[in-house]
Specification:
With 1015 residues, the protein is α+β, with helices and mostly antiparallel strands. The protein has 35 helices and 36 strands. Strands 6, 7, 8, 9, 10, 11, 12, 13, 14 and 15 form a 10-stranded mixed β-sheet that branches. It has a 4-stranded parallel β-sheet with strand order 1-25-26-19. A 4-stranded antiparallel β-sheet has the order 5-4-16-20. The structure holds zinc ion (3 copies).
Amino acid sequence: MSSAPELKATLTLPQTAFPMKANLPHNEPLRLARWAELRLYEELRKAGAGRPAFLLHDGPPYANGPIHLGHALNKGLKDFIVKSKTMAGFYAPYVPGYDCHGLPIEIKVDEQLGRKKLEMPAPEVLEACRAYAQKYIDLQTAQFERIGCFGRWREPYKTMARDYEARTLEAFYGFLEKGFVYRGLKPVYWCIHDRTALAEAEVEYAPHTSPSVYVRYRLTSDPAAIDPALAGKQVSTIIWTTTPWTLPASLAVAFHPDFEYVALEANPTPCTPLSPCAETSGASKSESAVYIVAAELAEAVAAACELDTTTELARFKGSQLDRVTFQHPFLDRSVLGVLADYVTADQGTGAVHTAPAHGADDFYTGQRYSLDPTCRVDAVGGLHVDPAAWNLAAPPAFAGKKVWAANPIIVAMLEERGALLAVSDLEHSYPHCWRCHKPVIYRATEQWFIGMETPIKRADSSETTFRNLAIEEIDKVIWDPAWGKERITNMIATRPDWCISRQRIWGVPIAVFLCEKCNRPIIDAALNRKIVELLEREGIEAWHTTEIEALLPDNAVCKNCGEIRPPGQGFRKEKDILDVWFDSGVSWFAVAESDSELQASYSAFQKNEGTEVLYLEGGDQHRGWFHSSLLTSVALRGRAPYSRVATAGWTLDEQGRAFSKSLGNGVDPVDIANRLGGEIVRLWVASVDFREDMAASENLLQRCAEIYRKLRNTFKILLGNLHGFDPARDQVIESELLPLDRYMLARTRELTEKIIGPDGKTGWYGAFEFHRVYHAINEFVIVDLSAFYIDVLKDRMYTFAPTSQARRSAQTALWRITEALVRLVAPILSFTADEVWEYLPAVEGREASVHLAQFPRPESIFSEDPAPLLEEWKEIFFIRDDALRHLERIRGAKIIGKGLEADLQIYTKGELLLLLRCHAAGLKEIFNVSEVKIYEITPDRRLKLPDLPHGTRFNTLSFSDNLSFVVLPASGHKCARCWNFMPEVSNYGIWQNVCTRCQEALTEMKIDQPTEAAP
Ligand SMILES: [Zn+2]
Ligand SMILES: [Zn+2]
Ligand SMILES: [Zn+2]
C-alpha cells in the first residue's frame, strides 16, 4: 500500500503528454520529416493496390513565382479529396504537375539575358528557361509540402520534361494526321508588346480610352441606282470607328441587308473650326450633303455629328447598297459596299468600316467579296504602306508609326480632308493581353489552327463535327457547381477555330516541314514518330539543332504538290511553337494515360468501368484547362477526359475586394504557415465554401487559429481522460455502457454518417462539402463534447475509482469517440490528427500514421440504429435546458453557488415521467446537481411541495401542466473530495468529510486511511 497523498491528489485528473501548445511553425516541419522517413506517400499507394480507383488529375500551376493563397486553396482542397478518398478505401494517387513553357517565363528570361539572347543559340536560351522554371518548381513544391499536401512531389509531372514534350508533340501529330490542323491567314488577337498571337483565353477585358470618330465616305457609284430620289445628289455614308489606325486597311463598308436605311439631307451649317469652309477636297459641311445611315440610328448620328435640320430624302433596305462604291477618305482607293448579318443597330451608324486584315467578321466578309486580307501592320504594331499599289507620290505621315501613334495622325488627315464629322474620346471595355496587360490588336497573320468544324465520328460511327461532339461530351460530365456546364457549353459553341501557334521559342515546336513550293506541311506518320523519338531522347532543343537532312528521307516528296526535292532542299522547318494551353490540355494523354501509377485506373475510366476522374480548378478554367483538355481528348479519344469537374471561386478580402499589393490586403499562405502553422491555412481552406468567392484576411486566419486551439484542447482532454485505459483489457461491452455514454456514441455515429455517409464513402467528404465537415466537427467538439459531455463526466472521471465499471464505461465511449474523430479530421488537420494518433491508447496492429488508417465504420462506433436513441435524448435535453435555465436564475439570485449545491425535484407525468424514471440513475450527472428526485403530478391533486426543514429557503419554478421544477439547497453534507452533497460523510483517517462513494473509491485505489498529513 502506498503512502497517503493529499486528498486532492487522489482525484484521477486527465493525464497526457500531448502538449497543449501546438508550436506548429516549429513542429510541422519535424512531422514532415517523419512522413518523408516513413515514405508515407509510397506506403499509401502500396496500401491502396487492388482497391477501386479514384483519380484526381492535377491541373498544373504555372511555375513562375511563389505560391499565393489561390494556390494554397487549390492544393488544399485537392489534398482533402485525395486523403478522404484514400481513407474511404479508394486507391487515390496524386501526381502533381507544373506548367512550364510559355511566354511569362520566356519574357523573364529575355529580361535576364538582355541583348545577349540575340546571339545565343536556341538550346542555350531554352536551357535558361528550363532553369528558371525548375527554380520555381522547387520553390512551389517545398511550399505545397509545407502546408501538408500529400502527393508524388519527388516526381511531379512537368510539361517541360522530355517525355512530356514528346507526348505533346505526339498529340499534335495526332491532330495533324487526323486532319484537324490547317495553316491559314487569319486575324487573331495579337500583342504587339509580346509580339505573339493570343488565344481567346489569353485576352482579358479592361477599360481603355480610344478615339471615337465618325468618318464620311463619299459615294462614287450612281446614287439614283440606290433610290431615284437621290439622283444628282452629293451622297455619302458615315462610318464610326474607335480604331482609326485600321482605316488605311479599309476595303469595304458593310450594311445589314434587312435594316432600313435613310438618306438624310443635311442643310449647310456655318463653318466651324472643326470643318472649315475652304477644303482641299472640296467636301465640307458648308455645302448641302446627303448621308446614308441606319434609320434606327439616324437621330443619334445626326446629334453626334451635329447635322442639324435634316430632311429624309429616301428610305430603303440595306440590300440596296450591295456593291455600291465609295471613295476612301484619304487613299486613292475604291471602297466596296458589302452586306453582312453581324451589323447591329446598338451603336455606330449601321455602316461598318471593314478591314479584312483586322477583324474576324471583316475577314469572313472579305472572303465572300474576294477582298485582299494582306496585313500591313507588322508584329510590333508598325504601319506599312504599299506606295505603288496605293498610288501615292510620297509615303503618308502614318507610315512606319505604331498603331497607337498613328491614330492622331490619321484623325488629323481626316480632318484636313473634311472627312471627319466628329471626334471624341471613348472609354470602353477593350481586349488586353493577359501577360503584359497592354491593349491588343486584331491582326491577320499566318497561323496554325485546329478546325472546330472538322468532321469526326461518334463512338457509334455516326458522323458529326468536332464542335458538336465536344458539346455532346460536356453533357456526360458532372459539373460542380452546375452552372459550369452551361458556361463551357456556350464557350465551345461559339469559339472560333483554335489558333495553336505562337511565334516564340520556349515551347514545344510545331515540328513539321513545309514545302517551299506550296507552303503545305509534310504529313508522314513514320517521319512524325521519328521526331517524337528524337524529342524523347533530346528534348525540344533537338528540333532546333538537328539538320533537316537527318530527319527528312532522301528525295522527300510533297504529297500536296507532288514535288520531289533533292535531300535537304525545298523544305523548311516550321519555327512556331504550340500554344501552352495545348501543352497542359494534353496532360490526360501525357500523364494519366502514360504514367505507371495512373494508367491502369485511367484506362478503366476510359472504358467506362466506373472509375471517376476529377478535375478541380478555378472557375476561369472553363475557357482554359478544362476547355483545352476537353478538346484534345474529344479529338484524339472521342470522349471527355474527366467524369467530374469542380470549380472554386476567388479568394477575396473581407470587403470582397481582390488582393492587391497597393491595398496591402493580401494573405500569404507561406507567411501564415511560418507564423501560425500550415494547419491554420488548411483549417481556413476547410472553413470556406469553395464554390463561392471566399474571404480571407489576417483577422479571419487568426480566428481559425483560435478555433484550432479549441479543437486541440478538446483532443488533449480526450487523451487525458483515456489515461490508464487499455482498450483490450478495459473496454465495456456496448450493451452495458451507461445510457449517457450510449447516447454520445449514437451522436458520434450520426455525425460520422453525415461526414462519410452510412457506407463510409459518401456523405460530405464524398460530395467535397468540406465546409460542412468543418462546421459540424466544430460544433460537435465545442458543444457536444467540451461544453456538455466532458463537463458532466468530470465527477465520474475524476472521483470514481479508476477501474470502476461506470468510469470504464465513460472511457470506452471517449475512446471510440476519439478514435472516430481523429480519423474524421485527418484529411483536414493532417498534422494534428497524426500527432493525436501517437498519444492514443496502444492497440495492436495500429498503423504507423493516421493517414494509413481508414475512416471509422459507423457501426463500429455504435452498433445500433442511432435514430430512436437520439429521439429519446432530444426530450431529455429539452428538460435539461429548462432545468438549467432555472438553476441559472437561482444562481443569479445568489441562493446557490455551484450546481452541486442544489437538489433538483422534477414534477411531471405521462410519457415524460416514464422517460425520466427510465433515466433516473443518470440525471444527477447530466444536470450536474447533487440529487434529482422525480415526482408524479396526479390529476386528483395539485402539486404538493415537500415538507422542508424549518428555515430552509426553497424555490419553485415553472409549474406547468406537464413539467415543473423545484430547486432546493442541497441536502446532506459536502464531501471534501468530490464536492457532492451526500447523505453521509465521515472521516477517512485524518481526512474529514469524505462521502461513502469516495471512501469506496479510495479503498479500491488501495489508498490507506492517512494517519498524518502528507509531507
Ligand atoms: Zn502582351
Ligand atoms: Zn508542296
Ligand atoms: Zn465524495
